[in-house]
Specification:
It contains ten helices and no strands. The termini are far apart. Helices cover about 70% and strands about 0% of the residues. Helix 1 (about 1-20) packs across helix 2 (about 25-30). By secondary structure, it is an all-alpha fold.
Length: about 200
């Protein structure tokens, strides 16, 4: 397990530093301190290695268990803050930047990422939580997938874009918390069954 983790760490570093094409199995082996033969014992190809990296490091499930006695706004705020904490960490941001760069110039990488995105089952717990509260009658939402995308945009889209592009100072700490709270409250106000 330790060797596999070292390989994935090296692949992550090579991808974020040099991009998909320049990150050869030779360079990953050198970065991990292992032989190329060892890499192939764990991963059958460079494509397989990077698919695993994307699934396990970028699309990794974000566990969230709400406290059922908390009010809806608190449950949703805590979930979005947890997602922000996971999504805005240095490794995921680096992987996102690299993948955005690679998918814009390489159709093969674009297809890999598109396939993995669909296979990942959209690991964020937002859709499940929304579906549960639509089914219980707490929320009125006709398209949960679209509503989850809207909620993500309202709470994390701007902060994520700021971190990725440096187009404006990123929201962090209390500023991020207040921004997410505002987005969650606005979203719930629009979709509450108790209007």
């Amino acid at each position: 397990m330790e060797r596999r983790t070292r390989i994935l760490n090296a692949a992550s570093s090579m991808l974020t530093t040099h991009g998909y094409h320049a990150a050869s199995m030779d360079s990953i082996a050198a970065c991990s301190g292992m032989s190329k033969k060892t890499l192939y014992q764990f991963f059958e190809s460079k494509k397989s290695l990077f698919e695993t990296l994307i699934i396990e490091r970028l699309f990794a499930p974000i566990p969230y268990t709400p406290v059922e006695t908390d009010p809806l706004h608190k449950q949703l705020q805590l979930m979005m803050l947890l997602i922000a904490e996971q999504l805005l960490n240095e490794e995921r941001l680096g992987l996102l930047k690299s993948i955005i760069t690679e998918t814009t110039r390489n159709p093969a990488v674009r297809q890999i990422v598109a396939d993995l995105f669909h296979l990942s089952g959209r690991a964020l717990p937002v859709q499940q939580w929304l579906s549960k509260h639509v089914d219980s009658g707490d929320l009125q939402i006709s398209d949960v997938e679209e509503a989850a995308d809207l909620l993500f945009s309202m709470t994390l889209g701007g902060p994520l874009l700021a971190h990725l592009t440096h187009c404006k100072p990123p929201k962090e700490g209390e500023n991020l918390t207040h921004f997410i709270e505002y987005g969650v409250n606005t979203f719930l106000k629009a979709h509450s069954s108790q209007k």
